[in-house]
Every structure is written in C-alpha cells, then in structure tokens.
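Annex B, item 7. Sequence and structure tokens for protein A, then protein B.
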Amino acid sequence: KGFSSTFTGERRPKGDRIFEALGATDELSSAIGLAGEFSSQKGHTFVEQLHKVQCMLQDVGSNLATPLSSAREAHLKRTSFSEKPVLELEQWIDSYSEQLPPLRAFILPSGGRSSAALHLCRAVCRRAERCVVPLVQAGEADPNVAKYLNRLSDYLFVLARYAAMKEGKEEKIYIKPEL
C-alpha cells in the first residue's frame, strides 16, 4: 500500500526521505561491488578495503533505518555509528594520495574499467550523501553517517586515480570545447 517500516517499527511512506537515503546507500554498495569485481580481475590489493566499505554501508543503512525521533535506547545501541570509520577512510585517502601525481586539471571519469567504475561509485556516493544530509539536519540520523559518506566519495575519487595509475591507463583530462 506504499508504506514500509523502519527498524523502530514506524510505518512511513515509501517515498519518505529515509527510504530514499536507504535506496541510495544500497545502490552505492552495489556499485562498489561491481567496481570491486573489476578491480579484483586486475589484482588490486584495495579490494578488501572495498569489501569493508560495503560492510560499513550496511551499518550506515541500519543507522538510517532507525530514525532518532522514534528510536529507543535498545535501537540506538545496535545502530550507532562512530567516527572511527571516518578516520580510517582519511588514513586510506592519505596513503593513496601520497602515491599519486598532483592534479593539474579536471579529470573525466576514465582510466580503465576499475577506475571508471570507481568514479561511478563516487557519483552515487555523492547522491547518497545528498539524501542523508537532510536527515542529519532534521536530527533523524547520526552526523557521522554524513561525514562517512563525504569522506567515502573522496576515497573513491583517489582510489579511481590510483587504479588508473596502477593499471597504466590514461586519465582523460577535461578540455574546454571551442565553440
């Protein structure tokens, strides 16, 4: 009948912002799974990190599915989201960034299958973040969830560049068309 339940048992319309955010997060996990498969075929060592990210996205979903306005203490204990995964992403970003040449121009999603798939993940991640921010602002989700998605999009960008470099694939540079 167009309604679904949150983890707290609250019934909300399927078009509710919570279910939009959950859907975007699920789509992100699926995109990361695809990028992980492409990357695994190329022997990239970061595939385990992508699997860990997918597991963290399950925790993101649990937090989103537990609106703070209707959550009881028992719910909050099971679905809290700490800052630790955010800090881990920042370490990963620093580690890969140190190995990359500095950016001197805008790059287009490119650089081989692994890289292009990771760029797609980044775009999906940004959409998920845009869905989550209003929930955080409304006091319905933990601010660390939005921080995680924000840092995750940066991680995916750096990882896309790293994959292209490791595979020896050229990243396409933005060139302003002459009109």
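Protein B:
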Amino acid sequence: MEWSSRRSVIRMNGDKFRRFVKAPPRNYSVIVMFTALQPQRQCSVCRQANEEYQVLANSWRYSSAFSNKLFFTVVDYDEGADVFQQLNMNSAPTFMHFPPKGKPKRADTFDLQRIGFAAEQLAKWIADRTDVHIRVFRPPNYSGTIALALLVSLVGGLLYLRRNNLEFIYNKTGWAMAALCVVFAMTSGQMWNHIRGPPYAHKNPQNGQV
C-alpha cells in the first residue's frame, strides 16, 4: 500500500516478484504487465501498452473504491529476465492476473492479440477475473481543441486581411481541393480505426496466423 501511494504501478524485479506475487499466502490480486521498455529493445507496442496500463492503474489508484484487494505491477525484461525464464515467456507485452489463491489459469492471461490493450478492455478483463470494477478516467487532451482554435484564427485572419477582395471564396478549384482532402481523410484507414475501434491484431481462421 505504501508503494501504491507513491506510484500507481509498482516496478518489480525477480526477488520482489517471487516474494509479493508468487509466494503464498496472499489476500490480494496482482495484475502484472511483462514488458520491455528499454529503448534498445525497440518495442513500440510496449510503450503504447504501457500508456494504457498507466491510465488504468491511475484510474484505480484515485478512485473511491481503491483498496488493498488489487495491485498493479510491472516486470521489465531488463530488470527481471529470470522471471521471464521462470514463466517460459518469450513475448512482450503480456498481461497476467495472479489470484490470491491457487495458480493462474488460462483466462488469467489477457488475450491481447484478439482484444487489444485499451484501458477499457483491460478493465473489463479485470472485472471478470477479480470482481473489481474500475471506471477508466483519461486525462483531458486539449490538442484537438487548440488545433481547431488555431485553424479558425488563421482563416479569420486571412479573411480579415483580404476583406476588400474576397473573390477567391468563389474559386471552384479551391473548394474542390478542400473537398477532396476531406474525402481522403474520411476514407483513410486512420479514420476507420478511430470509428470502428478494431482489435490490435486479427487471427486468420484458415491458418491461425495473427
């Protein structure tokens, strides 16, 4: 609890993992993210998953339901390679739930390839495994609002400077180019992903490839 009061996600090496996660008895559940965040590992997915994991852990740490029933931890490969070997783990990131009693079952490993690693999906999985419901609170992102305000200011300034000659507003080529830009943006894969929210990876039912 003292560690959690200082940091929402507790960093663990091999010794701490064996003492506080693996060794019985325990009266708390532990969510562990096995990852490789060091730059030399070149794991961009690990960094993205870590950001979502931090959002989830902070939502739990600062919620009114926060208690000593659940803790969020992380084991980095460069700090706990022996843990990876002990669990026969050869990929990262991986999320696992260690229950208070007994060994983790198959469902205690989060299916990241099928579901993705969004904080909301992780929260649903944790609720299924621990009966602890976490409402995800994301920090506000004002970048879109700022960009829109700058664009409106730029257009307004341009119209003000050209207030005596506004014939360019009736330029069909300009409007056509703007319309094409909007069409390309709306039909792009980025917009499709934003609207549909597909899983991070798909599995081919014919050959099982991910």
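Comment on protein B: The chain has two domains: 1-130, 142-196.
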